Amino acid sequence: MKKILSCLLLIAYCLLFIVRPAFAGYVLPYPSYMPGSKLYRVSRIVDQLKKYWYFGNIAQIKYHLGLADKYLVEAKTLMEYKQYLLATDALFRSDKEFLQLPKYVGDAKKEKKDVSAFAALIIEAAEIHAGVLSILASTVPEQFIWTPEKEKPTELNLSVLLRASQELRSRVAREILANVKQ
User: Fold this and answer.
1) pTM, whole model, 2 decimals?
2) CA distance 11 to 146
3) Helix (H) or strand (E) holding 128
4) What confidence tens digit (pLDDT) does each residue in 123-169 have?
5) Each residue's pLDDT tens digit, 35-93
6) Which spans in 14-110 are helix H?
């Protein structure tokens, strides 16, 4: 009986004092449906329909930040698989969603809502996004010519697009930080 009790006490001690909980900061989502999947179009339609479900400024901040994350992960995955034309489209969509954030933060602030936590979240997201874009910029070619079979080739200046996306996120983060401090 003493051995069982001492064993249980040892396990309890280990669980309470030795094992530390792990906390993660801002985490990007797992890639969703990708172009070519049968459910990809459905996913895009659902994304557009969710816009009407998320009403109010705080909900719109969550909605647009979530889509910016989703489309950035899509762009990253497509670039890793050298699907640069599709990746640039996803990156443009991510930029478009990220660019919506200052409007809703400003509107929420005008309604006298505390947006400091959301501002911090957006700034952290901008840093994570910039890190992903920086890694992509170092791994993909600076320029790529996409040549379809029966159409004219498309020149993609990937380094310029990635730098512009990084700058956009920095600008949005600065704008939100300035807006919150007012």
Assistant:
1) 0.85
2) 60
3) helix 116-139
4) 999 999 999 999 999 999 999 998 888 889 989 999 999 999 999 99
5) 999 999 999 999 999 999 998 999 999 999 999 999 999 999 999 999 999 999 999 99
6) 40-53, 57-80, 84-99, 101-110
Cα within 13 Å of Cα(2), Cβ side = 0
Nearest in space to 119 (alpha carbons), one of 131, 109, 129, 130: 109
- The residue to which tokens 């930029």 are assigned: 95
Nearest partner of 47 among 37, 33, 36, 28, judged by Cα: 33
